[in-house]
Design a protein that fits this description.
Helix content: 40-55%
Largest sheet: 8 strands, mixed
Distance between the termini: 53 Å
CATH superfamily: Alpha/Beta hydrolase fold, catalytic domain
Number of domains: 1
CATH topology: Rossmann fold
Order of helices and strands: HEEEEEHEHEHEHHHHEHHEHH
Strand order of the largest sheet: 1-4-6-5-7-8-9-10
Low-confidence stretches: 7-21
Oligomer: single chain
Length: 324
């Protein structure tokens, strides 16, 4: 049966419009500048695009929003959030990925967190997203940024405040004092990825204006949790949220491959964080430990842990939180 040309044209336009409504991108122009990341003559990174990508659930009303603070350049435009699109859509959740213009942004500066706040507010207002059942998720710097942003938002007197229900933390650094010592050891023994070790310690020492030895309070304040901070001043910020934590210790792998000890393992931070939350009265935390059988990838890092975790089961946990 032949389809009339006018009907065919309508179907093409309608289907294209529907798809464009499902995923929306809103990014600004690239800034013609770069950021110093080390002491060498070529230690610079170009700025990236600031903005957001928003995925709507298909054929469902939006009943909640998942937020990942990803890097628009070096995270290849939302590589973590894309893994959640199908499962989130099935549960009626929108997925929002937000990026500042700073490459590998640690959220050292208030301007970065304010930029993120304004982008989130813009996305919620423009697309009429419900400010309820909001969850932050992420691995590596994506997760760290979430913790920093939540602290910034709760401590700031901003008219727009997200109603956060929970946080999903996946194998990232919470204790930057421990991380600095980890990288100092790696540089000393001349093992592992020394570019990363030198880069991160340079950024920490530059923006926190010293080392954990000379400026311990700055490192404690920057860390969501620190074993070395007797006050653990930031725990109270997260004590009322549902928290699910994923770790992949890979102890034998890290020892035999990189000569890393238990002190050079993000799992140490996360387990300590959950213990302090329990002491603060949070009874809604959960720890998921990935075993070798759960992740066949030869890579053992934060992104590999995120790639391996069961997204459907994660969304079931999120669904349970909003039903409580």
């Amino acid at each position: 049966m032949k389809i009339p040309f006018q009907l065919l044209l309508f179907l093409i336009i309608f289907s294209s419009h529907s798809f464009s409504q499902k995923i929306v991108e809103d990014y600004g122009p690239l800034k013609d500048d770069s950021l110093r990341i080390g002491i060498g003559a070529t230690d610079f990174l170009p700025f990236i695009q600031s903005g957001y990508t928003l995925m709507f659930p298909e054929d469902k009303a939006v009943k909640g929003v998942l937020i990942l603070l990803e890097d628009s350049g070096y995270d290849k435009k939302n590589k973590s959030s894309k893994q959640l699109y199908r499962q989130a859509s099935n549960k009626g959740f929108a997925v929002l990925s937000v990026s500042t213009e700073i490459p590998f942004d640690f959220y050292f500066s208030e301007s970065s967190m304010l930029s993120t706040h304004q982008l989130i507010q813009k996305a919620f207002a423009k697309h009429r997203l419900p400010n309820e059942n909001v969850f932050f998720l992420g691995a590596s710097l994506v997760g760290h940024r979430a913790m920093r942003y939540i602290k910034f938002m709760k401590e700031g007197n901003y008219q727009f405040q997200l109603n956060i229900k929970g946080i999903v933390i996946c194998n990232f650094t919470l204790d930057w004092t421990r991380k600095w010592y980890q990288h100092t050891r790696e540089i000393r023994i001349n093992r592992n990825n020394l570019w990363e070790a030198r880069f991160i310690n340079y950024m920490l020492e530059t923006h926190l204006k010293g080392t954990p030895k000379t400026k311990p309070e700055r490192y404690h304040n920057f860390s969501s949790y620190s074993y070395f901070d007797e006050k653990n001043r930031n725990i109270k910020i997260y004590k009322n949220y549902a928290i699910r934590a994923y770790i992949e210790p890979a102890i034998k792998y890290r020892l035999t491959t990189h000569l890393k000890t238990l002190y050079e393992n993000n799992s140490t931070d996360i387990v300590g964080f959950l213990a302090e939350l329990a002491l603060a009265g949070n009874k809604n935390t959960e720890l998921v430990v990935l075993q070798p059988k759960d992740n066949p990838s030869p890579k053992k890092n934060a992104q590999a842990t995120w790639n391996a975790l069961n997204k459907g089961e994660l969304m079931n946990w999120i669904q349970k939180q909003i039903e409580k």
